[in-house]
Write a structure and sequence with these properties.
The complex is a heterotrimer.
Chain A (H helix, E strand, L loop, with lengths): L2 H26 L7 H12 L4 H11 L3 H8 L13 E6 L2 H5 L2 H12 L5 E2 L5 E6 L11 E3 L2 E3 L4 H14 L27 E3 L13 H7 L3 H11 L11 H10 L6 E6 L8 H8 L1 H15 L3 E6 L7 H13 L16 E6 L9 H8 L23 E5 H13 L1 H5 L9 E8 L5 E6 L2 E2 H7 L5 E6 L5 E3 L7 E2 L9 E6 L4 H15 L5 H18 L5 H17 L3 H5 L2 H9 L1 H7 L13 H12 L8 H7 L1
Parallel strand pairs in A: 1-3, 6-12, 7-8, 7-10, 8-9, 11-17
Antiparallel strand pairs in A: 1-4, 2-3, 4-5, 11-12, 13-16, 14-15, 14-17
Helix pairs in contact in A: 1-2, 1-3, 3-4, 6-7, 8-12, 8-15, 9-10, 9-12, 12-15, 18-19, 19-20, 20-22
Chain B lengths: L3 E6 L2 E6 L4 H7 L23 E4 L2 E4 L10 E3 L3 H17 L14 H8 L17 E2 L5 E4 L8 H9 L5 E4 L6 E4 L26 E3 L20 H4 L8
Parallel strand pairs in B: 1-5
Antiparallel strand pairs in B: 1-2, 3-4, 3-5, 6-7, 7-10, 8-9
Helix pairs in contact in B: 2-3
Chain C lengths: L2 E7 L5 H7 L4 H8 E3 L14 E7 L2 E3 H13 E7 H6 L5 H5 L5 H12 L19 E6 L1 H4 L4 E3 L6 H13 L14
Parallel strand pairs in C: 1-2, 1-3, 3-5, 5-7
Antiparallel strand pairs in C: 4-6
Classes of the chains: A alpha/beta, B alpha+beta, C alpha/beta.
The complex binds flavin mononucleotide, iron/sulfur cluster and FE2/S2 (inorganic) cluster (FES).
Chain lengths: 626, 241, 185
């Protein structure tokens, strides 16, 4: 069949089958409203969109309401009310990818497919769009083609790729050169590279015996396990750095029948990709950490929340779970321990950075819009479906498993006073050796830069979009909770990069990813970006910098969750660390006119429509009009 | 009777009850904490952030924060006043609020909050001037989403009081807005007697009763003479809640 | 020395100027401490001297509004945006939110002069006399075009708030505005 025929066929099929697709998908998930994200993912895949009619069908099947379904579809980026192509090409629009030339790559795709960004080809086969960081900053520019990852794109390789796709309509055929480690395995089968550049003794130690941590844990009482984790000094690796032992303790003490263990693999912070590598190479260790946590707090059920962008890892992760089940490390009477039962399910996300925030993540697991919950109560008291829940990062669970294996003392001997152990950094940007570095806490920024082969480093962003932007004078600061904390993101930029375009990118990101629940974050970030662009364009005055600081304070102080509490940080820290850049871009206006107001562009349309010049502002007439 | 909890607002000693929020305890004590999304009779949501106070030095939303023994709440201080002014300005600038032609003018809580907080200069921020269509499909009720401030009061009223689901949130970020459970409002099961569309549920002029426009003369409208919150500060003034 | 005041109506309806007249007999007290320069109140068309206070009614719809506003900025120490139109565009600004077609300005003109159901236009043409100032691509608020020092909200602001603000500005003290004077409608 020719392309057009196939497509026509598909379209008819779709209309006829919307009802049956909805019915069969809902049945597959037992009409369980909590699994609605999975249901919507599958319906989106099979129908190409979830339009008003489909929403109504879904609402009927699930005894829900159209507006609730619409609320979900319009919240998560991977759902669409408009028809999408069978193959969606998502170009990673991270700042690193921008500097690496994603715009050129976009040019190749628009050229080859004959559509603009955010459009779908007339035959309904291809959609083309940008998406925020997909966790491949060390191999930028990168793209997601359905669930296939393409990395290190060049205009040339992009063209070949586009042509291949046009020929065989099969993204899986794109994988020619597989990556290293498990990426090359049958189940992952991806071009992605791990780029592990430095191995430490905790996470990437060469010999880690599977099951050792769990065995050690099961020999002890649950509260002894928690005490071990407390003694190790382990703090959460997802960014906030809350004491893991304390979190487990609180959940264990909460009065409840059921408790939940959730692993946060949403990894959305721009420039972070270390969880992706752990999921690829240390999945077993991570599940082991979750199992230990379950034993410690008395939980029977766990969830791994996997960001939609990492869907390509799903078959592999399922197989690791399967092996653990077979080996008796999941299920009933785990490792022979009577009465200790634990199961893990994987919940895929649907494209929302805010779902990395723990209470939003819980909302998302519950089948709701990924909006944070009011606190108190905290998740350790009332989390998933109202049960006490611990949410920990992938790396945190891996560390916990190692702690039980090697002992709290072994772990706490590494690092600094308040930051024990090692930390994975995902280093990207202008450097010759981007990738994963496992190092003890307390490393100087300058040493990190040397290690990564940073080229003429001038701007370093530690901790991702919501982290701190520092300049050369601060390169002697240390990576640890007491100085410069990071969930893993470490981006270095050379002196020919523009500070303001980086700040502007981060604000664009936050505007896109704010859940919109609370006023200051929803609206304030838009105003921040407006003014940063005014600075970028050279139209700002010094008073605008005061305005920026003032507005930042309001947003940080009044926002409801961590996103708004930190989103102005790139603004505030860049003003503090790069005063000269800002000074060179601002000037006092002489006559009290707003430099940002441009009468010429304001008149352009009018001139065209009226077919005449301005009596006041066009030079020909200008003189005589006074 | 639940346990008494002692705490302070701006240095004044107050007794509340365990399980109450700061907002409820303050109301009982005749202290007004400015608010928009929170309203008597509906569960608090904590989204507008106008009720931000400082609790033991850290910001929190009074409408959702439970009382704890000995907590020190700061409400009427300049720092907080400035945050609240900024938030009201953000709301005024986010939508299209043309008070001169708005039917709700004079009883609008957003406008009244601007008056109470003394906002003389709403032009601090740029105006976003969004393009939002009007839904006039329903015979009795008009929805002008240009004025919606995303407080969710209609959504909660429909769910919690009417036992329906006429309204819901749709979209994300700056595009988060009000959706209706159908193609348009006429396609829902809303009834003019619903609490969701009753006067006073929508704090602004987004949900408007058709055929009843501008029925209160200027000078006799709710906030013409007394600032918003007066009913809480002087319960005996007759407007008590 | 008496303070010099200038006023102008840009894209406004002259309602704010009516409110200036609404200070009633207090205008005599005002004239003891201030004098009017360029203003429609006395029909003086040009600045005769530098002024202390400029009161602006209306936002900017066309190039002439912009030009006049810039002249005011050059000639006045303090600029006060008076009324909803000057501060946020007022009713004219509604065109910004409805103009979302491919060719928004043309759509706007055609709606106003040809298509609207209340239009009778036998010649079917859109006014385009060379003497007409060119219309801007959208309506701009005064603070978007020049720096504005103070604003007095209202549509129009009452004579009372104008009076109290003017006297406060002349005396260089903060205005005392009891509840009910600050109004956005
Ligand atoms: C906007 C936002 C996004 C977040 N994204 C992530 C994430 O992608 N991965 C993660 O582990 N933690 C993320 N967090 C932190 C989580 O809320 C939570 O603190 C963490 O998962 C707890 O685990 P830990 O203690 O092991 O770090 C995010 C927080 C915020 C406010
Ligand atoms: S700060 Fe507010 S709007 Fe922003 S993500 Fe958090 S809850 Fe949503
Ligand atoms: S009243 Fe508390 S957040 Fe709105």
């Amino acid at each position: 069949m020719k392309t057009a025929d196939i497509c026509f066929h598909l379209k008819c099929d779709m209309e006829k089958s919307a009802k049956s697709v909805v019915a069969s998908v809902c049945k597959k998930f037992d009409h369980d409203g909590i699994r609605i994200i999975d249901i919507l993912r599958e319906v989106q895949k099979r129908l190409g969109c979830i339009n008003g009619d489909t929403m109504e069908l879904l609402a009927d099947e699930l005894s829900s309401h159209r507006v609730e379904i619409e609320g979900l579809v319009s919240f998560y980026s991977f759902f669409s009310e408009e028809p999408k192509g069978n193959i969606t090409i998502r170009l990673c629009d991270d700042i690193i990818d921008r500097f690496a030339g994603v715009k050129e790559i976009a040019g190749v795709f628009t050229d080859e497919l004959g559509i603009s960004m955010n459009e779908t080809t007339a035959d309904g086969i291809f959609s083309l769009e940008y998406t925020p960081c997909i966790g491949m900053s060390d191999q930028a520019p990168a793209a997601l083609i359905n669930d296939v990852v393409a990395t290190n794109l060049t205009p040339r390789s992009a063209r070949t790729l586009a042509r291949n796709l046009k020929k065989n309509h099969d993204p899986s055929k794109l994988v020619k050169k597989r990556g290293d480690g498990n990426n090359a395995g049958r189940l992952i089968n991806a071009m992605v590279r791990n780029n592990i550049r430095r191995k430490g003794e905790v996470l990437f130690a060469d010999r880690i015996s599977s099951g050792a941590g769990l065995r050690a844990a099961l020999k002890r009482k649950p509260d002894e396990v928690i005490q071990d984790v407390r003694d190790s000094g382990l703090r959460g690796r997802g960014g906030a750095g809350f004491s893991t032992g304390l979190k487990w303790d609180l959940a264990a003490r909460a009065d409840a029948k059921e408790r939940y263990v959730i692993c946060n693999a949403d990894e959305g912070e721009p420039g972070t990709f270390k969880d992706r590598v752990l999921l690829t190479e240390r999945a077993d260790l991570m599940f082991e950490g979750m199992t230990i946590a379950a034993y410690a707090i008395g939980s029977k059920k766990g969830i791994l929340y996997l960001r939609a962008e990492y869907e390509y890892l799903l078959p592999y992760l399922e197989s690791v779970l399967g092996k653990r089940r077979k080996a008796g490390r999941l299920g009933k009477n785990i490792s022979g321990k009577k009465g200790f039962t634990f199961e893990i399910r994987i919940q895929l996300g649907a494209g929302a950075y805010i779902c990395g925030e723990e209470s939003s993540l819980i909302s998302s697991c519950e089948g709701l819009r990924g909006e944070p919950k009011n606190r108190p109560p905290f998740p350790v008291e009332k989390g998933y479906l109202g049960h006490p829940t611990i949410v920990n990062n992938v790396e945190t669970f891996c560390c916990a498993a190692r702690i039980l294996d090697k002992g709290a003392h072994w772990f706490s001997a590494i690092g600094t006073d308040e930051s024990r152990g090692t930390k994975l950094l995902s280093i990207a940007g202008d450097c010759s050796k981007p990738g994963i570095y496992e190092m003890p806490f307390g490393m100087k920024v300058s040493d990190v830069l040397d290690m990564a082969g940073a080229e003429d480093p001038a701007i370093v962003q530690v901790g991702g979009a919501s982290g701190e932007m520092i300049g050369r004078t601060a390169f002697n600061r240390r990576i640890c909770f007491e100085d410069l904390p990071t969930g893993g993101s470490f981006m270095t930029f050379s002196s020919n990069r523009n500070v303001l375009s980086i700040v502007d990118y981060f604000l664009e990101f936050f505007i896109h990813e704010s859940c919109g629940y609370c006023t200051p974050c929803r609206v304030g970030n838009v105003f921040l970006r407006e003014r940063i662009q005014k600075v970028m364009n050279g139209f700002a005055e010094e008073a605008d910098l005061e305005y920026l600081k003032d507005l930042s304070t309001t947003i940080m102080m009044t926002s409801r969750c961590g996103l708004g509490n930190t989103s102005p940080k790139p603004v505030v820290s860049s003003i503090a660390h790069f005063p000269i850049v800002y000074a060179s871009l601002t000037r006092e206006s002489t006559q009290g006119f707003q430099a940002s107001f441009d009468i010429q562009s304001a008149l352009a349309e009018s001139r065209r429509i009226a077919r005449r010049q301005s009596m006041i502002y066009d030079p020909v007439y200008g003189e005589s009009s006074e | 009777m639940s346990k008494t909890v002692k705490f302070k607002i701006d240095g004044v000693k107050i007794k509340g009850r365990a399980g109450q929020t700061i907002m409820d305890a303050a109301d009982d004590a005749g202290i007004y904490i400015p608010r928009l999304c929170d309203v008597e009779g509906l569960s608090p949501q904590g989204s507008c952030r106008v009720c931000t106070v400082k609790v033991n030095g850290r910001p929190a939303a009074a409408c959702t924060q439970p009382l704890t023994e000995g907590m020190d709440v700061e409400n009427d201080i300049l720092e907080i006043l400035n945050y609240r002014r900024d938030i009201i300005r953000m709301l005024l600038h986010e939508g299209n609020h043309l008070c001169p032609i708005c039917e709700a003018s004079g009883r609008c809580e957003l406008q009244a909050m601007g008056y109470r907080l003394g906002i003389l200069q709403p032009a601090k921020y740029p105006y976003l001037q969004p393009v939002r269509p009007i839904d006039a499909s329903h015979p009795d009720i008009l929805l002008d989403k240009n004025r919606c401030i995303r407080c969710g009061r209609c959504i909660r009223a429909s769910k919690q009081i009417d036992g329906k689901n006429v309204f819901g949130y749709i979209g994300r970020g700056i595009h988060k807005g009000l959706g209706v459970n159908g193609r348009d409002l006429a396609g829902t099961n809303v009834h003019v007697s619903d609490k969701a569309v009753a006067p006073g549920t929508c704090p602004v002029g987004c949900i408007i009763r058709k055929g009843l426009g501008f029925h209160e003369p200027i000078g006799r409208r709710k906030f013409d003479k007394v600032p918003i919150g007066s009913d809480i500060e002087n319960p005996e003034s007759g407007r008590g809640k | 020395m008496k303070k010099k005041i200038a006023t102008v109506s840009l894209a406004g309806c002259f309602g704010c100027h009516m409110s200036i007249l609404d200070i009633d007999e207090r205008i005599l007290d005002l004239l003891k401490v201030a004098e009017f320069d360029k203003t429609p109140v006395n029909d003086l068309k040009k600045f005769t001297q530098r002024c202390d206070i400029g009161l602006i009614e209306g936002g900017c719809c066309n190039e002439e509004n912009v030009h006049t506003l810039q002249e005011f900025r050059k000639n006045c120490d303090l600029l006060v945006a008076v009324g909803a139109c000057a501060i946020m565009g007022g009713l004219p600004v509604m065109r910004n939110a409805i103009m979302n077609s491919e060719d928004p300005l043309r759509e706007c003109l055609e709606e106003a002069y040809l298509n609207s159901s209340s239009v009778y236009n036998a010649d079917n043409d859109i006014p385009n006399d060379p003497a007409l100032p060119l219309i801007l691509d959208k309506v701009y608020t005064c603070p978007e075009v020049v720096k504005i020092d103070y604003q007095i909200p209202g549509c129009p602001p009452s004579g009372d708030i104008l009076w109290r603000t003017l006297i406060a500005l002349i005396n260089g003290v903060p205005a005392d505005l009891p509840y009910g004077l600050i109004r956005y409608d």
